[in-house]
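PROTOCOL LOG
Step 1. Enter all chains and additional molecules of the complex.
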Amino acid sequence: MLPEGARLEARAINAWRGDRHILRDVSFSVREGEFLKITGPNGVGKTTLLRVVCGLLPAENGVVEWRGKPVHSSSDDYHTDMVYLGHLNSLKADLTARENLKFLAGLREALTDADIDAALDRVGILSRGDLEARSLSAGQKRRLALARLLVSGAVLWILDEPVTNLDVAGIGLVEDLVREHMARGGLALAAAHQRLLDEEPFLRRLELD
Amino acid sequence: MKRAATAAAANLVFRRDLTLAWRRWDEVAQPLIFYVVVTTLFPLATTPDLSQLRSISGGVVWVAALLASLLALESLFRSDVEDGTMEQWVLSGQPLGWLLLAKVASHWVLTGLPLVVMAPVVGTALGLPFSAWGTLVASLLLGTATLSVLGGIGAALTVGVRRGSVLLSLLVLPLAMPLLIFGSRAVGMQMDGESPAGPLQLLAAIFFLTLSLGPLAMSAAIRISVES
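Step 2. Run joint prediction.
Step 3. Record the structure below.
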């Protein structure tokens, strides 16, 4: 059987938060080498949409398909292919930066110390590798969370406000990481307020209102 | 890089919790201290006469172990859910039930096992005869392990509830009653010179039943808890 092309498609997603109907018939599709930027004012449902796409939140109706299959029917395969960076960094304050990567990203991929060092180096916090996460700055914590993307081995990146707390160099880092990921034929979705990769040919937009 | 095996992932979860506990040992020691204090209070409140204490010693150790286990349960999944680690586990592509079972196993090693190890000491202080040590330890081994899994289900269900500790006790305590009854009965039968095999086998049966259904129940409950 030929492998189905990597393609994420959402059709007519509806979702409620409490008694508010916040996503109404949202549809999009993303292919290999495409970056979908989801914009819209606060509270419009960007995070909700990303969580529905991840499979963390059930949609009221509508369907999300990955490689042509509904994601809820083959969720372990789908989750192997995707990685989610939420607005929480998913870090343990009592573990060092290295241990945080080892114990969380290691659940997905068998990581060596060299893999971890390379990822920490790429996001610019290698020299902080043995510090406890509690003593990192907010921007360094975000960089550590970004390092998780690099060692995830995932094709599909789902990023919720990836540049929160990052300085100018950090925003440049996120842009570079996404560009490299696009060049590898990856897919990415991101909710973002800021200017992010606005001039790139692979950018697609989804405006929620 | 290659895909991590499920056993390797479960092992990472187990080792991570031991590492975290090593750095926060004061929190981990609380149930054990509670257990020793409660059992020490009984002779003060009732009688220092060992021959009278002996008849209730098995029951006292069991009640104290049950309450001490409950004390440690509420925080089981809370910090992982609050800092976003749990949603990453759900999305890791690994069977969530195995990861949660590994977490419960490390929780038992940190809180249940010390209670079992200390049981002969606190039991002796209450006049428990040497001949009943084996039965007390065996019943507590099965009982605390079952309680950790049962408590894991309860903690997974109540992790999204603010101040869920009362609810957690209400959920878990009724389910723990058979453990208390069979566990203290086994110790009592041993001291009366009868064979404790019956209650111990029932404890083992409850343990295996809980162990087989626990991971399914915990992962279903956690999936609901991370939805919010």
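Step 4. Note key features.
Residues 6-225 of chain B form one domain.
Chain B has a mean pLDDT of 92.
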